[in-house]
Amino acid sequence: MPIQIGILGLGTVGTGVVKILQQNAEAIQTRTHCEINIKGILDRDLHREREVSGDFILTDQPEKILQDPEIDIIVEVMGGIEPARTFILEAFQHGKHVVTANKDLLALHGHELLDAADKAGKELHFEASVGGGIPIIATLKESLVANRITALIGIINGTTNYILTAMADQGRDYAEVLAEAQQLGYAEADPSSDVDGLDAARKLAILSSIAFNSRVALNDVFVEGISRITREDLAYAAELGCTIKLLAIAKHQEEGIEVRVHPAILPLTHPLASVNGVYNAIFVIGDAVGETMYYGRGAGSLPTGSAIVSDVMRIVNNIQANSTSPSNCTCYLELPLKAASDFHTAFYIRLLVKDEPRVLATLALLFAEANISFASIIQKPRGHHQAEIVLVTHPCREGSLQEALDSVKAYSKVLTIQNVIRFESGQGENP
Amino acid sequence: MPIQIGILGLGTVGTGVVKILQQNAEAIQTRTHCEINIKGILDRDLHREREVSGDFILTDQPEKILQDPEIDIIVEVMGGIEPARTFILEAFQHGKHVVTANKDLLALHGHELLDAADKAGKELHFEASVGGGIPIIATLKESLVANRITALIGIINGTTNYILTAMADQGRDYAEVLAEAQQLGYAEADPSSDVDGLDAARKLAILSSIAFNSRVALNDVFVEGISRITREDLAYAAELGCTIKLLAIAKHQEEGIEVRVHPAILPLTHPLASVNGVYNAIFVIGDAVGETMYYGRGAGSLPTGSAIVSDVMRIVNNIQANSTSPSNCTCYLELPLKAASDFHTAFYIRLLVKDEPRVLATLALLFAEANISFASIIQKPRGHHQAEIVLVTHPCREGSLQEALDSVKAYSKVLTIQNVIRFESGQGENP
After folding, report:
1. CB-based contact (8 Å) between B135 and chain A?
2. Residues in chain B where the model's pLDDT stays below 70
3. Least CB–CB distance from A148: residue in B27, B314, B321
4. What is the largest CA-CA distance in chain B?
5. How far is CA A9 from CA A16, B65, B262, B321, in A?
6. What pLDDT was estimated at residue B374?
7. In this structure, is residue B430 part of a structural domain?
8. Which end of chain A has fewer CB atoms surrounding its CB within 10 Å, N or C?
9. Residue B379 and residue B350: Cα distance in Å, rounded?
């Protein structure tokens, strides 16, 4: 008896799922000892042209999929919050397992969906929601389950990594590279969800909830985007033996957990520094396993489809093994969340100042008053009796840095604070 | 009711397992909803000092562990072929699940052990046998299961990677770095299993069997070690924008599968090129997921223990879910194995020749007779009317290359063939 699945949505990802199930049908059947058949696909527009065809029902009526008693597994790849949320809840009510790639939905309503799955005694899998085909969810939930995860640092947004890589490699400006990325289809017409860090924040909420067994909501994530990064910042970073990446950082420390997405200056020697273009990677530190990293394409029809079909096969295996009582929700703890002012990092501060005596000395004093000292300083003449100064601080509290910056802003010899960027050593410890 | 485990062996890895089970006991219990208790440990010498202690029976009588009806899971971390093989078979006979880190045993007797597990309806897990704590086995078996794996390229021996990294970074000689690695404990007193490539070959036999669903025995793996690599080769590799790594390569091509372990010249831009020191990484290409990579410490007490305890927790979850009929053996196919003479790679050939006119032209003719052409050539004077020539061929059949080398050897102007090293583009395709 084949196991029947229903697919909600036939966009890029849904098409990838169908292609993989069709092209690798033989291998999939051999590996699961079972035929997996697509019984129906929900598609809003039944008349457009499609890349795939097959012996399945194409319908615009969700109940035909959700209420079909023969369908065991629902694959939700329509995206968006509603009606995806309602459909998934209905699927559980009708006794179906669910696989979804919907990060937006999970970051907002993951709790509700996991609870509904547990209540129904059905499985909810979502490997495809973060990092495309990179198996980061299974790794955190199963392969590293013996560890206390102390840090997770990810490059989990392909658009921003493409932009920063091109800016770094080619010395180009943000706006120019963004426009090119939009032309190439690597960035959307409205790129804000990517470049403002929101997409990465959603994924980080999902990853850190699993890594720390404690619910992290989207609102818990501190977020800063990449639009203020200039080619000058990337040139200075290179001078410091570093590069700039949009990092999604989650750390479990004694005082609690901190979760933040922001551009960060990262040493070139760190494995994440050579993750370029649209590739994603997640660096995970566990107390037993030490430093590990998982790398691959973070998006795309087939990579995302790979994760979805693997999740489907996992459910098929469990159905065949008569496995009971799945445990979907793994947030057993309620760990305190650190405030942004308590983050502890080193900072890069780029200032345009009047090129006069004693300016640097005064700056050093202003920072010293907030208990902040410098690890290195670069100063360059900028003409018109102006100089550009890059200050690299030793690690300090974010709150203290903000105080110091207030004094710096008020100092008449400072013309502009051009940028402030956090450092990340990538070592799991505060640097 | 706690689930009871028995551990065979209390060396480095066994100690790591005990430490993790003790230190992370609370997290482990929360995550499995179950207490995991070490009931007994088999140790040959009951009187030596140990790093760990606890409320377990320490015994030198295997039957006290293997025949204890309370014990559900046996962890085999004694290493070696016998008596480990017999103990594992006995464990299945007594209805126990088994977790092992024993790559030597699996590479030789994996088939027998997996069959015994299937017959007993028990689980056999061995994530720790390859890549320490890197979750490569679970990734191949589960997370990438929707894919047809086309290529797997690994740095899976820490000793050789430490040696080659130090040689490349510091321009030092093989013998000197090996001696240092032995002093630091990164290489054994008899380093042959590592430096001759056998350890990597064992791991590759395990990985490729899983990746291709077709049994690959140790004898099927073509093996060449690193002892002939010199600092000169590394310097030329750098000149070519490359480095040299001991790679474990498995490819699935139309004609069959090829599995080989040998030093290879790899472009510096490839993600594996920056895997340095004792770190391991496995680069996996799947038809759907594309290029992925898994990185971490390939050995050590706690990283290996992380994989073992995670495997134990996986079994505990399955016991609690009443999951039946595990499927351990995944070698459903019998794919043909390519002969070494049919390998298709580019080659680096370093020759010491008489510095006379027409030598290069004659060499080009000798290679052309075997249908081999050059992609690049480096020639340097070596004094005494001698020159060193490095020929980089276009990709060619290994058999043709051997024919050409026979003619080159017979050519009177060639004084020595100093080294021949394969290239690996790391792209999955033949370069």
Report:
1. yes
2. 324-326, 428-431
3. B27
4. 84
5. 11, 53, 47, 32
6. 96
7. no
8. N
9. 10
- Quick check: bond before A83 cis, omega within 30? yes
**Contacts A–B by Cβ distance under 8 A:** 211
Q: How many domains does chain A have?
A: 3
B375 within domain boundaries: yes
Rounded CA gap, A317 and A24, in Å?
17
What's the pLDDT tens digit per position in B235-283?
999 999 999 999 999 999 999 999 999 999 999 999 999 999 999 999 9
Distance of residue B150 Cα from the nearest chain A Cα, in angstroms: 13
Beta strands in B179-307 (DSSP E): 222-223, 242-253, 256-267, 279-286, 290-297
Tokens linked to A71? 């369908």
CATH code for position A191: 3.30.360.10
Residue A26 neighbours by CB under 8 Å, 6+ apart: none
Torsion of CA A49, A53, A59, A64, to 10 degrees: -160
What SS3 class is residue A278?
coil
User: Distance between CA B175 and CA B70 in Å, rounded?
Assistant: 51
CA distance B289 to chain A (A): 4
Residues of chain B neighbouring A326 (CB-CB closer than 8 A): 321
Question: Cβ neighbours of residue A418 under 8 Å, at least 6 residues apart?
Answer: A230, A232, A350, A351, A352, A388
The single-letter code of the amino acid at A216 is V
The residue assigned the tokens 């890549």 is: B131
User: Hey, what amino acid is at B363?
Assistant: L
CB contact under 8 A, A302 and B296: no
Exposure pattern of B242-255 as b/e (b: 16+ CB <10 Å)? bbbbbbbbbbbbee
Whole-angstrom Cα Rg for chain A: 24
CA distance linking residue B367 with residue B375, whole number of Å? 12
Containing H/E element for A391? Answer: strand A386-393
Domain assignment present for residue A75? The answer is yes
ipTM: 0.94
Task: Tell me, yes or no, whether B114 and B151 share the same domain.
Answer: no
Q: Is B298 at the interface with chain A, CB within 8 A? A: no
The answer to whether B106 is a known ligand-binding residue is no
Q: Which two tokens stand for residue A405?
A: 């910056």
The H-or-E segment that residue A99 falls in is: strand A97-100
Q: What are the chain B neighbours of A310 within 8 Å (beta carbons)?
A: 142-147
Chain A contact probe: residue of B30, B99, B147 with most A CBs at under 10 A? B147
Look up residue B425 and give its two tokens: 């583009």
Give the three-class secondary structure for A218.
helix
Kindly report, residue by residue over A51-110, the tens digit of the pLDDT. 999 999 999 999 999 999 999 999 999 999 999 999 999 999 999 999 999 999 999 999
The distance from CA A61 to its chain's CA centroid, rounded to whole angstroms, is: 33
Residue A263 CA to residue A116 CA, distance in Å, equals: 36
Looking at the structure, tell me whether residues A281 and A251 fall in a common domain: yes
Say whether both B217 and B277 belong to one domain. Answer: yes
Q: What is the pLDDT of residue A325?
A: 61
Residues of chain A with pLDDT under 50: 430-431
Q: Give the per-residue pLDDT at A208.
A: 97
The residue type found at A381 is P
Catalytic residues of B: 203
The residue written with tokens 């995302």 in the block is A304
The verdict on whether omega for the bond into residue A431 sits within 30 degrees of 0, i.e. cis, is no
Q: Containing domain of residue A311, as a range?
A: 3-132+301-320
- Domain check: are B355 and B314 in the same one? no
Alpha-carbon gap, residue B190 to A129, rounded angstroms: 47
Q: Are strands A256-267 and A222-223 parallel, antiparallel or unpaired?
A: parallel
Q: How far apart are alpha carbons A198 and A204 in whole angstroms?
A: 10
> Within a domain: residue B333?
no
Same domain for A289 and A408, yes or no, is: no
What pLDDT shows up at residue B34?
Answer: 92
How far does CA A247 lie from the centroid of its chain? 8
Sheet strands (E) in A224-278: 242-253, 256-267
